[in-house]
């Protein structure tokens, strides 16, 4: 601390005192501006959306009751028609009940929906149905009904989800042939909300070769639409009280083309080499209807494009290593005998080839390159790609040929011979 | 010096990356515990629980009972488990496809019980059905097996009255086989069945039935090698267990020899059972010597009239019990040997192999023809040690 000095002229303020004052004021201003909580939004003031379902506005309105509800849910819109029904699954966190044992509160969900033309307009109108603002940063799953994309394509629906900054790019998108909203109402027996259940189930794609797991989220879909290439979506179905993932829906540019089955998905994964594990089953040639299953756990897959003049072809070299997973004709073959094992290896290799050609033909018939043939050409032969990329899906891809060579090695036979 | 130190440090850091040991960890909450498995014949009713495959039929319906995580906190009457199913021809492929119905990977190391429906066994051998469970490394050998004449899926859907997990409940029932003479539980789990399959010997598996909310284990399904041939009732199982000596305790009931209007019960608690093959020239026969020790467990009559302090009466009872046990054994032998022609768990064949290896080497290929007609000479001796805490 310093004070004014006594001089001949009397007591006068020192200039260092002025500086000090300035500093103090600055500190206070900075302190106010860096408190960091001026725009806070507490947990209990948010309504966290876990899953989104998009249906057609007139879907599921058979009952008079639903019609009445739908009229209340929506708003007056002077122009255009109501095209979409947007439904949100919102997390409902309530503290544990009085007298209930244990600290665990119930985690439930509820659903709000609305109909309209613009997604963002519907969302804002939904604020008339909830008590707090809606929070999208934890959306796990977006489920789209087939009828919506058949009519309008993917672009108008997805635009908001890739434009808004609350949306994450790793949100999973799925397609269903029925209505999407009941999937939000579905209560998985394990207790978690269905939005999380579906996203987690899709994450098991490395072990379940019947679901596509590569490039099926919002970010990839957005990028694919921008690149005018195909979009893949896992297919989900709800029948009675059973939910099942399997197969996928294919979009060319942003138009819905159709579904492909589990077997084609599996073959597509073999071509791209994206599977981590897979079960390949063959029928025993000596004992019809008895199954031999090979469990793949390691593979080397090399897909190389070759260009000869106008002719584009691919070579696919696959080496698969794995175990014998199941052999239903168990007594008849001696698995200790190398020749028997080699016989099974050859059978499995043949089956992998057959599977690959099945999906190749499926994709070529649909004129959609759902695997990675296009990107491979772009990487290896950028000049050729520049020439063909405009009509790749429609003209070039359906005519390319694939030369497959598969080598299967059975390393172990499991816990029993 | 400084250089050495640097290298030492680098090695230490590098090693610590390698030995963290948790690179492939899978937390409890990321696993779906499978407690029970049911195998039925597929009826193609729900097509959503399956997958497209261009070749092969779909003969099996596989149902898994999964444990609900953290169940029971809300509502005491909720089930602790739930069921998912699938159809296909390969068990392994179905299990993997079921990941599309589950949010966590399936974990079989705590699998308790496999229930197989008779409808599957009529067209498929036991070996091919069980091969996946025998081969996979996650399965334990002590998994219990049951056969049912109805639908096996009902057992994985069954919620025990105690509200516990169904799979555990089913597995516990058969663990009591040493005291329940009606249940065939000795050497009937997955490990022993695998042994029997490998040795090409006949198999016996306990039978389980369900009606409404009642589940009951009793009797057994008999297999000629791995082909299902039929069921044996509880009385035949008792006879078979007396021959094999696998009972630890048993209850034998007879009408009182003096006054036929009431029952007397013998509670066996120790026995000495010897089954031995004998060869005389070309003839093979077996002797069965049973010595049994036990108490009088129940005497419904008038104890003034039937005096248990009277040693003559006790001796009379011992004779009558021995007769009844002989009768039980003969009944069981009739079912196993004459009707089904099944030498389960290689009981008789194993004795020949152990005592007369040379003969066994000669006859083992025709054992199935020889076995039904080999004579069995039975002698039973019962001694009653105590009369209980009342006379």
Q: What do these coordinates show?
A:
The complex is a heterodimer of chains A (417) and B (391). Chain A has 417 residues and is an alpha/beta fold. Chain A has 13 helices and 15 strands. In chain A, the strands form three sheets. In chain A, strands 3, 4, 5, 6, 7, 8, 9, 10 and 11 form a nine-stranded mixed β-sheet that branches. Chain A has a four-stranded mixed β-sheet with strand order 12-13-14-15, sandwiched between helices. In chain A, a hairpin with a 2-residue loop joins β13 (291-308) and β14 (311-327). In chain A, α9 (262-272) crosses α10 and α11 (373-380) crosses α12. Chain B has 391 residues and is an alpha/beta fold. The termini of chain B are far apart. Chain B is 31% helix and 30% strand. Chain B has two domains: 28-232, no CATH class; 237-386, GMP Synthetase, Chain A, domain 3. The interface between A and B is large, with 57 and 50 residues.
Record keyword descriptors for this entry:
heterodimer; A: 417 residues; alpha/beta; four-stranded mixed beta sheet; 31% strand; B: 391 residues; GMP Synthetase, Chain A, domain 3; six-stranded mixed beta sheet; 31% helix; elongated
Question: What is the compact description of this entry?
Answer:
With 417 residues, chain A is an alpha/beta fold.
């Amino acid at each position: 601390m310093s004070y004014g000095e006594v001089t001949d002229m009397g007591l006068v303020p020192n200039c260092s005192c002025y500086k000090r004052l300035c500093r103090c004021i600055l500190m206070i201003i900075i302190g106010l501006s860096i408190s960091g909580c001026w725009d806070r939004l507490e947990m209990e003031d948010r309504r966290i959306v876990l899953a989104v379902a998009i249906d057609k506005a007139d879907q599921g309105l058979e009952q008079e009751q639903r019609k009445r509800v739908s009229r209340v849910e929506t708003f007056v819109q002077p122009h255009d028609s109501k095209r979409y029904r947007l439904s949100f699954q919102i997390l409902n966190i309530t503290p544990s009940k009085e007298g209930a044992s244990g600290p665990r509160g119930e985690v439930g969900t509820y659903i709000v929906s609305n109909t309209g033309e613009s997604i963002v307009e519907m969302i804002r109108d939904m604020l008339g149905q909830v008590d707090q603002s809606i929070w999208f940063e934890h959306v796990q799953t977006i489920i789209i009904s087939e009828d919506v994309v058949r009519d309008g394509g993917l672009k108008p629906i997805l635009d908001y989800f890739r434009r808004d900054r609350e949306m994450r790019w790793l949100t999973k998108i799925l397609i269903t042939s029925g209505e999407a909203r009941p999937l939000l109402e579905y209560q998985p027996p394990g207790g978690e909300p269905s939005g999380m259940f579906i996203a987690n189930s899709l994450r098991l794609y490395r072990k379940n070769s019947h679901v596509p797991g590569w490039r099926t989220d919002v970010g990839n879909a957005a990028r694919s639409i921008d690149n005018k290439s195909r979009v893949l979506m896992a297919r989900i179905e709800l029948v009675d009280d059973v939910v099942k993932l399997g197969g996928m829906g294919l979009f060319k540019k942003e138009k819905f083309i159709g579904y492909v089955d589990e077997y084609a998905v599996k073959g597509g994964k073999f071509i791209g080499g994206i599977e981590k594990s897979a079960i390949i089953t063959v029928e025993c040639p000596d004992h019809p209807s008895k199954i031999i299953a090979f469990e793949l756990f390691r593979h080397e897959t090399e897909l190389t494009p070759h260009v000869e003049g106008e002719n584009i072809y691919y070579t696919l070299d696959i080496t698969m290593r794995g175990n014998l997973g199941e052999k239903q004709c168990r007594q008849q073959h001696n698995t200790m005998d190398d020749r028997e094992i080699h016989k099974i290896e050859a059978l499995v290799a043949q089956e992998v080839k057959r599977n690959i050609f099945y999906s190749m033909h499926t994709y070529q018939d649909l004129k959609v390159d759902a695997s990675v043939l296009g990107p491979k050409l772009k990487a290896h032969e950028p000049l050729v790609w520049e020439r063909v990329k405009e009509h790749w899906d429609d003209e070039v891809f359906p005519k390319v040929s694939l030369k497959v060579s598969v080598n299967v090695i059975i390393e172990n036979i499991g816990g029993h011979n | 010096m400084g250089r050495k130190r640097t290298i030492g440090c680098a090695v230490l850091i590098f090693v610590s990356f390698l030995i963290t040991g948790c690179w492939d960890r899978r937390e409890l909450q990321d696993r779906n515990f499978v407690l029970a498995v049911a195998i039925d014949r597929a009826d193609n009713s729900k097509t959503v629980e399956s997958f497209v495959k261009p070749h092969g039929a779909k003969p099996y319906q596989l149902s898994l009972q999964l444990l609900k995580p953290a169940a029971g906190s809300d509502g005491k009457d909720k089930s602790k488990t739930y069921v998912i199913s699938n159809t296909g021809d390969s068990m392994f492929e179905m299990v993997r496809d079921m990941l599309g119905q589950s949010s966590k990977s399936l974990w079989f190391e705590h699998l308790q019980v496999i229930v197989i429906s008779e409808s599957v066994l009529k067209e498929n051998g036991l070996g091919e059905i069980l091969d996946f469970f025998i081969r996979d490394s996650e399965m334990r050998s002590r998994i219990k097996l049951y056969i049912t004449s109805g639908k096996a899926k009902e057992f994985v859907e069954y919620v025990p009255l105690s509200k516990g997990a169904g799979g555990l409940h089913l597995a516990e029932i058969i663990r009591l086989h040493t005291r329940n003479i009606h249940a065939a539980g000795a050497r009937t789990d997955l490990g022993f069945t695998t042994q029997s399959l490998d040795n090409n010997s006949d198999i016996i598996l306990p039978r389980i039935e369900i009606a409404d909310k009642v589940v009951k284990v009793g009797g057994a399904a008999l297999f000629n090698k791995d082909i299902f041939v039929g069921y044996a009732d509880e009385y035949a199982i008792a006879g078979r267990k007396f021959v094999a000596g696998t009972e630890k305790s048993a209850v034998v009931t007879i009408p009182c020899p003096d006054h036929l209007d009431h029952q007397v019960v013998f509670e066996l608690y120790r026995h000495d059972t010897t089954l031995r093959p004998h060869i005389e020239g070309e003839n093979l026969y077996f002797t069965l010597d049973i010595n049994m020790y036990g108490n009088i467990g129940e005497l419904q009559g008038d104890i003034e009239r039937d005096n248990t302090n009277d040693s003559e009466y006790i001796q009379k009872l011992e004779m009558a019990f021995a007769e009844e046990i002989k009768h039980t054994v003969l009944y069981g032998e009739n079912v196993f040997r004459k009707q089904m022609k099944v030498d389960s768990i290689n009981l008789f064949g194993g004795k020949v192999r152990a005592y007369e290896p040379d003969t066994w080497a000669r006859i083992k290929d025709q054992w199935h023809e020889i076995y039904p007609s080999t004579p069995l000479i039975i002698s039973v001796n019962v001694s009653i040690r105590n009369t209980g805490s009342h006379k």
